[in-house]
Amino acid sequence: MTTLIINIKELLQVRDSSILKISGAEMAILPTIKNAYLVIQNGLISDFGSMKDLPNVNPEKCIDADGKMVLPSWCDSHTHIVYAGNREQEFVDRINGLTYEEIANRGGGILNSAKKLNETTEDEIYNQSKARLEEVIRLGTGAVEIKSGYGLTIEGELKMLRVIQKLSQNYPITIRATFLGAHAFPLEFKENHKGYIDLIINEMLPEIAKNKLADYIDAFCETGYFTVDETEQIMEAGIRFGLKPKIHVNQFNSIGGILAGVKYKALSVDHLEIMKKEDIEILKNTETMPVALPSCSYFLSIPYTPAREMIAAGLPLAIATDYNPGSTPSGNMNFVVATACIKMKMTPEEAINAATINGAYAMGISQTHGSITVGKKANLIITKPIPSYYQLPYAFGSNLIDTVIIEGEIFT
Ligand code: NIG
Ligand code: FE
Fold first, then answer.
1. Residues 270 and 406 in one domain
2. Are the C-beta atoms of 22 and 358 separated by less than 8 Å?
3. Distance of CA 281 from the midpoint of ligand 2 (Å)
4. Does 43 share its domain with 135?
5. Whether the predicted model's global pTM rises above the 0.85 cut
6. Is 251 in the pocket of ligand 1 (CB under 6 A)?
7. Closest residue by CA, ligand 1 atom 9
8. Other C-beta atoms within 10 Å of 24: how many?
9. Residues 87 and 224 in one domain
10. Residues 21/363, Cβ–Cβ less than 8 Å
């Protein structure tokens, strides 16, 4: 099946296949072709260029993108899309003055979601989660990482990972699964951290690895959750089972999680709202992608990741949604791109690089996703007619997406 897109006002994020991530000053550059065409063959980008060089193709389908932009679909490298119910009451409690930490300390937060998840059937969790997945695809997400971490029991964690697997089998978008058993200590292990870590390492991990249910291992390295030492134990065990680390660090406190992540060659370190100078230094010249979650900062009214300092230090940066019921009940990557510009002072070019190629890198798929490159998946966004791509972050409340293409097919 061949599809041809013609008259593209501007084709964004055109890259050579050797580019797997963009760092520092280069993030300010977004290579584009004006008045372009793009050819899709069997779900992959097979050719593109300027309209004046349009070759003779005989497509089964032709899309006229007059006035519209085409860009690679968003790569959302950090989500918790699979969950049960919601935490609307905690949202109102926070409006009335409680903090995220206070809510967690009285048994709410992650443990609240874990209780709901363990009380909900696998089919019901699947149905709730698939509605969210379909919503984010329509919002332009073409690849997504999804974490477990609301089970906190062997059965609950396996149930979540099976739901992720089923989503990945039933939907055309690329999904990567991350095992986050170390998201919080269940109440019964509050005073027995070793007991829960043993359960993760000796019982959950072998079962997950045997059934090939996860690609990555995660831990919430934070005061009141997992210490640096406990996070290292989890990463080390995950690596033994073939899972590369992608970890939650520096959301509320800088306690050494970044150093630990870099030591264990984490693919990404995520959140980074609280960054010390030395945290930025540690990330220099590593293969670890820093990931900011601006809509989490927005929803919790906590600091934003200091993107400007990090980019000035030569680091790459990815941005993702963190879609979850507690700290970010939104999977809208368009809002994330806009918020990165508005609140973190990233330029539109930097934000688009962070949400596409660098997001792909942070989920280990930048060989196949995240840019307009011959041979990569034809996962694309066609915008509505817009004056320039600045409009994407500028018109932050508008849905500017006209068509979403996943593996060469229009997603409806
Ligand atoms: O990334 N910080 C840890 N985990 C999630 C929030 C979990 C929750 O509140 O349910 C996050 O923000
Ligand atoms: Fe998260």
1. no
2. yes
3. 23
4. no
5. yes
6. yes
7. 326
8. 15
9. yes
10. no
* Domain membership of residue 63 as a residue range: 2-72+369-410
Same-domain check for residues 182 and 141? yes
My answer on whether 13 and 51 are in the same domain is: yes
Contact present, 218 and 245 (Cβ < 8 Å)? yes
Query: Is any atom of ligand 1 closer than 6 Å to the C-beta of 126?
Result: no
Ligand whose nearest atom lies closest to the CA of 251: 1
The number of domains in the chain is 2
Residues in the chain: 412
Tokens of 289: 């992608």
Distances from the Cα of 168 to the Cα of 18, 144, 176, 214, 248, angstroms: 27, 10, 8, 12, 23
* Tokens standing for residue 210: 């045997």
Segment 349-396, tens digit of pLDDT: 999 999 999 999 999 999 999 999 999 999 999 999 999 999 999 999
How many angstroms separate the alpha carbon of residue 141 from the centre of ligand 1? Answer: 20
Do 188 and 309 have their domain in common? yes
Going from the Cα of 124 to the center of ligand 2, the distance in angstroms, rounded, reads 22
